[in-house]
Design brief:
The structure is a homodimer.
Chain A: E1 8-11, H1 22-36, E2 41-44, H2 54-59, E3 64-71, E4 77-87, E5 90-96, H3 97-101, H4 106-109, H5 119-130, E6 135-139, H6 150-155, E7 159-161, E8 180-182, E9 194-199, H7 211-219, H8 226-244, H9 260-266, E10 270-273, H10 274-282, H11 284-288, E11 293-296, E12 300-301, H12 310-321, E13 325-329, E14 331-332, H13 337-340, E15 347-349, H14 357-362, H15 364-383
Helix pairs in contact in A: 1-15, 7-8
Amino acid sequence: MPAGSSPVVVVAPSSFKGSLEADEVCAAVARGLARVWPDVEVRARPMADGGEGTVKAILSAGGEPRRFEVSGAAGTRRAAAVGIITTPEGPTAVLEAAEVVGITEPDGMAVPVTERSSVGLGELVRELLDAGFRRFLVGLGGSSTNDGGAGLLVGLGARLLDGDGRALAATPAQLARVARVDVGALDERLATATFTILSDVDSPLCGPSGATFVFGPQKGVIPAQLTTLDAAIAHYAAVAEAAFGRRVSTERGAGAAGGLGFALQLLGGRVESGAEVVAQVLGLDEALADADWAITGEGRSDEQTLLGKTPAVVASHARRAGVPVTLLSGAVDGRALAGLNGVFAGCFTLPSGPMSLAECIATAPALLADRSEQLGRLWKAASELRPRAGKSRG
Amino acid sequence: MPAGSSPVVVVAPSSFKGSLEADEVCAAVARGLARVWPDVEVRARPMADGGEGTVKAILSAGGEPRRFEVSGAAGTRRAAAVGIITTPEGPTAVLEAAEVVGITEPDGMAVPVTERSSVGLGELVRELLDAGFRRFLVGLGGSSTNDGGAGLLVGLGARLLDGDGRALAATPAQLARVARVDVGALDERLATATFTILSDVDSPLCGPSGATFVFGPQKGVIPAQLTTLDAAIAHYAAVAEAAFGRRVSTERGAGAAGGLGFALQLLGGRVESGAEVVAQVLGLDEALADADWAITGEGRSDEQTLLGKTPAVVASHARRAGVPVTLLSGAVDGRALAGLNGVFAGCFTLPSGPMSLAECIATAPALLADRSEQLGRLWKAASELRPRAGKSRG
């Protein structure tokens, strides 16, 4: 970049959970950088990993937002946002489990986790099949359900039957009683549908590293329920696998979103890194190709960050493009710095001094703009540095 | 600076009050930078402004530390550190009011401010006169006394007399009763002594912007005492000025250190910016001459920072040398950024995320090293940036 000219900066953060959505982060960073370089070219790529915000992030690159009324986790009807985009493979619907059974929704969390169902996601897919779509990107993450994806299957026409052939509700409380999964009435159009599962969770469906044990507690599964619930899901899963003729419960990502990863794989879905798919849809590589600098970030960076979180994905793309990438997060765990240092050209945080989390969240947009401006000022000074006369060292 | 080589970095912070001394700040910053560039050349210039840490900062450039036992503000004997240096003008003693009557000393604060006296500073000057010194740099700031410098004068032989010719104690409580200041017994060697007063305080001795009203409250002067105490000091000052034949109470800096600035000016002292004098003694300009980057900082930066505080002094020297200077403080008031941005190549802070002041102070060395490392990583990436093929903009 010629001395004195403005840089091209790719800004590709994830959301700052509980504080700012990814596009709001992009806007604040851009505001700060523009104070340093009024004509800076900021290429905003608000990222997501399949969880909350995925539809919105993908739509930032274009496409059509739509809403469909479906059942929430507790049965209350709600309008779920869907993104319609065109990929090289054709028209594609982008769904997000969190839009239907989101853990931040008061509805879903109002009933015990054993009564919550993902049936609404099945309803949503059916609506989209009705609308003619056959290609689906399904973001998993941020769900309040832990039903092994039984709700999704039932929403698409499958039936859970007990030993007497009576239909059971698609809730965790009933799964131990499932004697047969009837796939006869499954929507026939699924045969020509393809599902890409966007997730950053590697868990299998069951066992100590499965959906129930790892993610159940944050959804309200109490310790005493863990073993029983895990066993019920394992039982249902074996029955469902027999009906579909596929063994997928031990596959990577089967445990994503309380087992929605399992159900979608039963339907032939393929698991991909949510952040990688979003990066591709948003054209992250194209944005990086002739950029000078990239900034990514998340609410809090720690030792999990390098395990496939959005900033790590952005960093790997930036490295391939030869673009230095700086991390700007709400907080950075000092213990993670040793690892992060190998990846980022500086790791920075929001606070302007000692402050509480609440204060940090309340003033996040201003802090982000200020911090970005300061990063820009340091960047500017260092990038404009030239050898000066009189320097004596080699 | 050639690509890939390590920079020369001048590190010239003030102390982080209540947390780290300036040399400790230098060490932590150097540690962080060395993680980025193992062979980085750090030129540590621990700064001070005349207040606490001035002797230590000046001795970092060489010289001999000494200690003299003198009276503290409440009369308890204490060992005050003095620095002996050689300047172009000859052997010079560096004194610091905070070493004798420091506000962080439990002794001085144990008695009411109306009973505290700066007599120990007079004793200290006398010890140094005995040792043969005639040139004094006296750092003012961080004092617990507000005696108009009466103690200093008495320590040097002057006498405060009441209307009946009886000697009064050199404490604020007695100043209203001073009818005459007897300078007959003043140490004769003062006639050939020169005092340079190091201060960053512009206040006159009395009035609304004087020592009592501005600095009295933080020393324990209660609101109801302010007017009476200010009037007592004004009374004493007029009497003293008559005795010395000099009018200096309205001079800039007369109100520094509870009026020690007044007393030293009565003795012919000249007020200079503490940080400027320290910069000169430490050879800041020489260090900056062929440096690539400078880092300064303080405990907390706000709208006062640009009013002659150490970072502002360092910044003005760096600007003259053409060296970008970055601010790394414990906290930076967001309202001050607009001004600070005109001076610093980036303003950064210690916290790694939301944290309390206590946590920040407790982990300050590690935070400083980490933050400096991250600044270094960003600096490195930006300074190594080169135009890359395929970039299409001008």
